[in-house]
Structures are given as structure tokens and as C-alpha cells.
Design goal:
- The strands form two sheets. An eight-stranded mixed β-sheet has the order 6-7-8-3-9-10-12-11, with helices on both faces. Strands 2-1-4-5 form a four-stranded antiparallel β-sheet, with helices on one face.
- By secondary structure, the protein is α/β, with parallel strands linked by helices.
- The chain contains eleven helices and twelve strands.
- α5 (130-143) packs across α7 (162-174).
- β7, α8 (192-209) and β8 (212-217) form a beta-alpha-beta unit.
- It has a domain at 1-38 and 45-86 and 231-263 and 275-334: Rossmann fold (3-Layer(aba) Sandwich), CATH 3.40.50.300.
Length: 334
């Protein structure tokens, strides 16, 4: 039984770059976080903020070249995943860390049956024979709410709806009872009814299986419903990190505040347009030397344009990378 207070994953000072013909793209810049057993960590931010690249870096899923993990430690199960061999990494992928990819429409192979694709990790990582793997695959489909599971194993992905395909992706990710499940915007392409069903399913499975989960999304409403802690990413950096209730009640970074202001107010009957964040995300053609959000920030001052702030504590469960402090707070350390 895992210690509920033990870290199952520790990431420190992770940096990932892409070496392109036009120069180096600094996609992930000094990212650090930890994940405890049974915990759900939400990773939020606009498109292009580095969420997916960070998580794919953990499992070496990025093509190299052009991608290169230039720095950092990824500590999992007593090993640094940066230093283990390709063969050992294949045992981690799917076997110990499950990954639900963003688009089930393209992540499933159209020329293989759903049963084959669920059984493959079971035979590879757990050594199950065909009959045992097939039985387990049917149990997994039942677990994620697909009826007539044994018969549906013979079907191909095009014979499933979008919501059902996403459930199949979840079944594949859960096949080998991983310690950690990474879900990369798994409900983005689904309608709101199916999205609600998937969220309920994840909460139920987390309770049943006790796994740690990293949930990547741009939807703060989803995070408010399911997460324990939240890391807010911008320009390949974590700019704020807090317990979920603390983040919503006491956001410190102007970017976090701007994201929260874009949420619709269901009590507002005036028909006003939704808020948006002015400006564009930065070009990451060089490593950050100042606050990357400063050009879009109404609170920016001289220091923001000269120095890139490190994360500093707000309280025991909350830290922020920002030179500005909200009204009523003391000035940030010089």
C-alpha cells in the first residue's frame, strides 16, 4: 500500500528545447513539481504554454531530434527517467505510467481492433497469455462503462462514438494498473454531456484504484471540480502553484487572475461578452530573461522587464513567480 503522503513523482528544473532550422525553441523552462500517491494535480494554461510538452518530456515521447531535454531530474520509482535505457523506459510507459492522449480520434490505430489495442500492453508488460489478456480487456471496457464488452473487443475504432473512443483510451491507459495516470486534455473534443460522464468516471476510478493523476487542461472549471493542487503554466514555466481552493480564493499571479476572469458568470444575465486576455503568448526563441507575461500585464513595472522571477512562497501550500504583490500584501523580496 502506497503512503498517501509519499511522492511518487518528482520533477526538478526540467528544460526541453526544440532545435529547428530557424533556431532553438525553449518550450519548457525550469519546471519543478511533485506528485503524491492518490493525488490529482491540475496543469492549466493557454495553448502553447508548455503543458503537453512537459508531460511528454517525462516519458521521452517527443521525437529526438528535434526535441532535447537539456536539463532536469525526473525521479520516479527510485530512478531518474532521463538516465534509464530505452528498454527500461518502454517498461515504464503504459506499465507504470499511463497516458491518455489528447485526441482519441487519432490516437487509436484504425486498422486494429479495440481488443487488440487494449490487450497489447497487457501481454507486453504483464506477460498475460491471449485468453487471460482478452478477459482482462473485457473487464477494463466494463470498468469504463462500455456495455457488451466482450463483443465490443472485436470492433474497430470507427465503430465507436467519440465518447466511447475516449473511454477506450482510458481503458488502455489503466490496463496495467499504473502508479501515475497522465491525462492530456482528455475531454476537450467531447460535448458537455460526455465530458461530464468522463469526469465522473475519472473520479470514480481514482477512488477505486488510488492512483495519482496529472490532468492537463485549459478549463479552470474542470480543475475546480476534480483537482487537489493546481500548477499554472505560462511560456513553459510554472508561474503559480497552490492547493485548488487556495488558488481560486487567493490568486497572486496576474496571469492566474486573468485566466479566472475569463470564466463565464452564470449569474450574469446582461449578455455581456466574455473577458479575454489581451495580447499574444510570447515567442520562445530564447530562454526567459524577464517575466514573459510582463508585455500583457497591467501590473508590470521596470523590474518585470529586466528579471525573470523565481517561485517564492505565499504560504505553506502556495507559491508564485511574480515581482508584483496584490494590494494589501507586502512587496516581493528584492
Amino acid at each position: 500500500m502506497l503512503d498517501a503522503h509519499a511522492d511518487v513523482l518528482n520533477v526538478a528544473n526540467l528544460k526541453t528545447v526544440f532545435n529547428t532550422r530557424d533556431g532553438v525553441v525553449h518550450a519548457v523552462n525550469d519546471v519543478s513539481f511533485s506528485l503524491k500517491a492518490g493525488e490529482l494535480l491540475g496543469i492549466v494554461g493557454e495553448s502553447g504554454s508548455g503543458k503537453s510538452v512537459t508531460m511528454m518530456s517525462l516519458l521521452k515521447l517527443l521525437p529526438s531530434p528535434p526535441a532535447e531535454i537539456s536539463n532536469g531530474v525526473i525521479e520516479f520509482d527510485g530512478h531518474d527517467l532521463r538516465t534509464i535505457s530505452d528498454e527500461e523506459m518502454r517498461k515504464v510507459r503504459g506499465g507504470k505510467i499511463g497516458f491518455i492522449f489528447q485526441d482519441p480520434m487519432t490516437s487509436l490505430n484504425p486498422v486494429f481492433t479495440v481488443g487488440f489495442q487494449i490487450m497489447e500492453p497487457l501481454r507486453l508488460h504483464m506477460g498475460l497469455r491471449k485468453r487471460a489478456a482478452r478477459k482482462r480487456a473485457a473487464e477494463l471496457l466494463e470498468l469504463v462503462g462500455i456495455p457488451d464488452a466482450m463483443a465490443r473487443l472485436r470492433d474497430y475504432p470507427h465503430q465507436f462514438s467519440g465518447g466511447m473512443r475516449q473511454r477506450v483510451m482510458i481503458a488502455i491507459a489503466l490496463a496495467c494498473d499504473p502508479k501515475v495516470l497522465i491525462a492530456d486534455e482528455p475531454t476537450t473534443a467531447l460535448d458537455v454531456t460526455i465530458q461530464a460522464q468522463i469526469l465522473e468516471l475519472i473520479k470514480e476510478l481514482r477512488h477505486k484504484l488510488g492512483m495519482a493523476i496529472i490532468w492537463i487542461t485549459h478549463d479552470l472549471g474542470v480543475i475546480a471540480e476534480i483537482a487537489d493542487r493546481v500548477a499554472v503554466m505560462y511560456a513553459g514555466q510554472i508561474v503559480e502553484h497552490a492547493e485548488v481552493r487556495e488558488l481560486f480564493a487567493n490568486p497572486h499571479h496576474p496571469y492566474t487572475r486573468a485566466l479566472l476572469e475569463t470564466l463565464p458568470d452564470v449569474s450574469d444575465k446582461s449578455g455581456q461578452r466574455l473577458n479575454s486576455i489581451d495580447g499574444q503568448p510570447p515567442n520562445l526563441d530564447k530562454a526567459p530573461v524577464h517575466c514573459e507575461f510582463a508585455p500583457r500585464c497591467k501590473h508590470a513595472f521596470d523590474r518585470c522587464l529586466k528579471e525573470n522571477p523565481a517561485r517564492r512562497p505565499v504560504n505553506a501550500d502556495h507559491d508564485v513567480a511574480c515581482w508584483w504583490n496584490p494590494p494589501g500584501e507586502g512587496a516581493a523580496d528584492a
